[in-house]
Amino acid sequence: MIDLHTHSNYSDGTDSPAQLINKALAAGVTTIALTDHDSVAGITEATNALRNGISLVPGAEISCQTEDGISVHMLGLLFDLENSELIQTMAKTRENRHGRMQRIIERINEAGIDISMSDVLAELSDGETLGRPHLADALIKKGVVSSRDEAFTEMLHNKSKFYVAHYSPKPAEAIALIKAAGGVAVIAHPMASHRGRTISYETFGDLISAGLDGIEVDHRDHSPDEKTALIKLAKDNNLVMTGASDYHGNGKLNLLAEYTTSNDQWDALRSRANADRVIKL
Predict the structure, then answer these.
(1) What is the per-residue pLDDT across 52-82, written as a single tens digit (0 to 9) for each?
(2) In order along the chain (281 residues), what is the average pLDDT of each group of 10 residues?
(3) Phi and psi at residue 184, in whole multiples of 5°?
(4) Nearest to 184, CA basis, from 256, 240, 245
(5) Nearest Cα to 135, choosing from 110, 107, 159?
(6) Does 148 fall in a domain?
């Protein structure tokens, strides 16, 4: 089984990279991509945890935003981990997250809820990328909500009055950075409308022109009709179709390998990178 979208506690997951590898092995996953938000910091630990029977795809989920403020997540896979321009762009995005978090907290405080930046940072381990799931965990400890899912459903989704945008590259810019680093670009859960506004099908033309390699079709946040439309879009434009869990660990319903990528689609995607960077024993 091939799962090309997972997270560790180096961003907003709850498992360490080593725990993630062990759980993937137990679940029968043979190829797993670690795609923490705007970070490759967990790749070394994941690599050190590898055992026979599982391969690691280095990657990251890059936060993007369109001109009209729509959030887009771009999976970069198999890129050169030493590429300075891509690494610096992700670092800039991570740094901006702290200012954004403070503004979200201020809005929550204005609604009469007692939460502070120190409460949120207490949920953040060294080297992790700060994100809304850490705020969710702080809200759980305060007794405001009972789970991450409840936090996002009630308070932290993109349409919430508490939502604040943050710096991130345009989707086409992210694709260009990934491609320049020798990797492949796959747009993650593009039609997940419950997360907020989604890009139009027409927008895909610009992304395809920029070098988009694939679409994450099979994802729990896509309806059957959305999957059908994305499959047609992919076939019409010679794009690879992937499936993935978007696993985050505890607090989210997503299970490892609940959606997977077929071998033929993985081979097609892998062939588009400028080098074979799959890591295995």
Answers:
(1) 999 999 999 999 988 877 889 999 999 999 9
(2) 97 94 97 97 98 97 87 96 97 86 95 95 76 91 94 90 86 98 97 77 91 97 94 97 96 92 98 97 90
(3) -125, 150
(4) 240
(5) 107
(6) yes
The domain of 102 spans 97-156
Nearest 5°: the CA angle 109, 139, 147 is 145
Number of domains in the chain: 1
The domain that holds 108 is classified in CATH as: 1.10.150.650
Token reading at 191: 């039609």
CB 89 within 8 A of CB 150: no
What is the distance, to the nearest Å, from the Cα of residue 88 to the centroid of all Cα atoms in its chain?
A: 18
Q: Which amino acid is at 158?
A: N
Q: How many CA atoms lie within 13 A of 15 on its CB side?
A: 20
Q: Hey, what are 174's tokens?
A: 């992210």
Give φ, ψ of 44 to 5 degrees. Answer: -60, -45
Give this prediction's pTM: 0.82
The tokens describing 146, both together, are: 């009972």
Q: Is position 185 within any domain?
A: no
Please check whether residue 145 lies inside any domain of the structure.
yes
* Calpha distance 175→64 (Å, rounded): 10
Distance of alpha carbon 101 from alpha carbon 124, whole angstroms: 13
